Amino acid sequence: xxxxxxxxxxIKSQNFIAGRWQDAVSGQVFPVLDPADMTExxxxxxxxxxxxxxAVEAARAALPAWRATPAKARAAIIKxxxxxxxxxxxxxxxxxxxxxGKPLAEGIGEIVYAASYVEWFxxxxxxxxxxxxxxxxxxxKMFAVREPVGVVAVITPWNFPAAMIARKIAPxxxxxxxxxxxxxxxxxxxxxxxxxxxxEAGVPEGVxxxxxxxREQTPEVVDVWLDSPQVRxxxxxGSTPVGKHLARRSADTLKKLSLELGGNAPFVVFDDAxxxxxxxxxxxxxxxxxxxxxxxxxxxxxxxxxxxxxAAKLTERVAxxxxxxxxxxxxxxxxxxxxxxVDKILNHINDAVVHGAKVLTGGRRVREELGPNYIxxxxxxxxxxxxxxxxxxxxxxxxxxxxxxxEAQVIAAANDTPFGLAGYFYSENVSRIWRVADALETGIVxxxxxxxxxxxxxFGGVKESGYGREGSIHGLEDFMQIKYLCQGNLK
Length: 491
What we know:
The chain folds into two domains: about 10-260 and about 465-485, 3-Layer(aba) Sandwich (Aldehyde Dehydrogenase, Chain A, domain 1), CATH 3.40.605; about 265-445, Aldehyde Dehydrogenase, Chain A, domain 2, CATH 3.40.309. About 40% of the residues lie in helices and about 20% in strands.
C-alpha cells in the first residue's frame, strides 16, 4: 500500500540544524509509522536537550543578518519557497497521506492550502509599516516601528503536518524572525520536506531549524526552549492542557505566546435553514480529514421541527463515505492516526449510547483486515448532554445530533463549554443571523458555511481555546513587537 515517490530526496530522516542534516547527539531514533497498516516508513532522530540547544544557538546566530535583510529580499525568498512547494505538490501530498493517512486528494489539497499561507506572508513581508505619531509638544518627532520578536519556537500537531507548520514559519520569516521547530512525532516527514525546499529557495543557514523527538523525549526538547532567554516567542497548536503548561513554563522569561488549543465546536441548524446546504456544510466541516480537525463540529444542534428530515439526509450522505487507505481509489475517510485515537472515538460512541443515543450509521471499526485504525463514519441521534462527547473533543468522524426548541436554548447550550474556537450555524433569517453571530462565544463563526479557513482570515479562539491569531495581517503582527522612538530638541 506504500506510495512511490519520484523525489526520494524529499524524504528526510535527520534533524535540520544550521543548514545541515544531522542525527541526534545521542544517536537515538524512533519509527514513523504508516497509519494505514502500521508498517514502518522510516526512522528519525529522537532528539534531546543538546539538539534543542544547538537549534537555539543556530537560530540566535542567524537572527541579526536575517532581521537586517530588506523585507523585499525576505519576501522574494519566501515566494521562491512557495513556488517550490507548488511545483512539488503531488510529491508532498503523497508524503502527507503516507504518514498522516488522509486521502490523497486531501493530502495534495493540504499542500496547496499550506502554500497559500506561504504566498500570503511572502506578499505581506514587504508591507510591514510603522506609524508617525502626532507629537503633543513642539520640537519632537514620535514614531512607532515594528520589529521581529526574535527567535521563535514552533510546535505543531499531526493532523495537518504541512499547513500547521507553514502558517507558523511563513509569518515568522516574513517578520524577520528565526525559527526552531518540533513537528509532531507521528508526522515529522512533511515538515522536514518543507525545510528542504525552504533551503532550496534560499532561506539562509540557521534561519529555520527543525528537531524531531518522540512523545517521551518531547518535554526535554521543549523545556530547553521554554527556559532559554534567547527564545522570545512560542507558537503552539495542540491540546489545552499542554497549552496551559507552556504558558506557565514561559512565565519566567515572559515569552510572547500564540496558543491555538482545543475546540468543542457547535453546529446549529435552525428550522428556517436550507437543509441541503446545511448537510453540505456539515459534511465539509465534520468529515474533512476524518474529523481530525480542531474546528470540526463536535456537537450538532438541530431544531426539533426539522430534526428527522435533517438526520435522514445526513445519514444517507455519511453512510456512502468510503473508508480505506489513502492509496485506494475513491476513499474519502482514511485511517485514524493511531489505535489510541480509535479507542477514544469508540468510547465516546459507546458512552453516548449508554446515555440514550441511537446509532443511525457507523459506530464500529471497519476493514480490520487492513489494520486497527479504521472506523466507520458515524451519525448519532438524540444525544444527551450528559454524554462525554459534549465536553471532550472526539477528534474523529462522529456527528452527534442534539434536538433543541428555541434560539435561546441552543445559544446557551452552544456556549456551555470552556472552549471557544469555532462555531457554525445555518439560518435564512437575517435578524437571527446577526443575533446568533453576536451571541456565540467563539473566535471563528461560520454562517451558512462549513469551510471557514483562509490565509487572509484570522484563525484562533477565545476562552480555553487559546489566544493569538494565525493567518491574515493579525498573524503577522503576532511575530512582531512595537518600538516607540521619540526624537526631541528639534527646534
